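Archive transcription. Copying these from loose printouts into the bound notebook so they stop getting lost. Printout 1 of 2:
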Amino acid sequence: MAGKARLLAGFAAGAVTVLAVQVATGVIDAPPSTTVVAGTALPAPAAGRSPGGAPVTSTPSSPPSSVQPPPPAPPTTTAAAPAAETPRVPAPQQPGTVRLPGGGTATLVRKELGPDAELPIPADLGQATWWGAELDAAGGASVFAGHVNWRGATGPFAELWTDRIGGPVSIVDGAGKTWRYTVSQLVTVHKNDLAARADELFGQSGPHRVVLVTCGGRWVGGSDGYEENRVVIADPA
């Protein structure tokens, strides 16, 4: 199916990439150093004889003054190197989640439209791709697409086939803020008719709304997979 006719053609596997950054810092302290000064002592006076041969003892006219070593200089300390400033790394933003009216939840993965205007699909049964408007937008559709089933397991978006008007939808964004919506429309679209209704259901004009979409109905295989799409539209509560 070319162009917009390929929108929501099937819900197959994709890929998600996760990047982690780790930072480490250290501090080095310089050890203190001290200065020591040593003292000296004078020699004692020597004994001798008088000119008449009588032994005499040489007596110093005054005792030598005692020489005291200078007091030791106060120790000098090299200041420790200042601690390296720890870089401020923003906390990794947690992925958002969507809670469906029946209690099913899925992790949100932000995606963009493919080259053929195909709605991006999640890589895992517990994920929902998010395309279109931001949650705080004044207008346009925030589109969330999820698998109805995968490898024999039922996905949370399978409940879209049994949801009712008036049911609550809540979305917790990556910053932890909760956005609340109420189901206002339930639409089942044959895939042959989807292209003609794409702007109506998924367009970025008109008031802000959340659009939940999955596959279902009869399995036909091929590029379509399932024969129909289930679309649930919810307005801000």
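Printout 2 of 2:
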Amino acid sequence: MMRVRLLRHRPDGLLGVRMGVMDTGHWVLDMDGRPTGAAAAVILDNTLSASLRTNVDDLHWVVTTELHLNFMRRLPADGTVLEAWTRTLVGDEAGGMATGTLQGPDGIEYVQGTGWFQRVEGNTSEGPDRFEAIARQPLGDEEGASLGALLAACPAAPIMSGGRPDFTQSFLPGLGFARNDLLRNSRGALHGGALMIMAAFAAQQAMPDRTGYDLQSLRAAYLRPAFGAIASRTHVRYAGSSLRVVEVELFSDEPGSAGKAFVQATAIFRQAR
């Protein structure tokens, strides 16, 4: 998934450790054909959780409850291999927090991330093995596809009822994303990193003049597991000449979901330089 390979290391204290690498290419391009740091969400979600699990005894399985990414510069799309360096900030048997950066072989940092994770039970060893097997598959038709095509982005979907009316009534229909089982995490639900990229794209597409703005930061709260096709609703909270703030909710159109959000995200954009 997104050409991410996880590495196996033991903890080395506060200095951090290289937990994974990511190949760049056409799959880091947004829906307008520009490189986007949002493509780093998958590797950072993976490696931050792996850092925590490696540093806390008996913490074998966790789910992401919050992920916050800051984007320093656009990702290269030229085949550069980027490295995720992470370290655990706090952790115990219930979960914890880790931070890290995605950087090039020359040490230039592209994305900084912080994640909160919560302990869960009932996973199996087949999940991570399946996930890593997907990343080892040879490139196929997706080699020349943009990230939006890989996520099966669709035109704006209608708003579904549900959730808090006082919060959602000002939201507009956002992008939809068709079902894609290759985007599942080790527990069978949709991967948190993939969901974060969907939120970034939905926020970006909510701005008619989006090509004049770059993603500065993205914070996502994961409320419940997500399955099947994805719909979104967006609200441009602030639209200044140099800064934009867009709120996004992702929800499922599967029967019985009642339009309840499973991801709430806030994207901040700065004027492109």
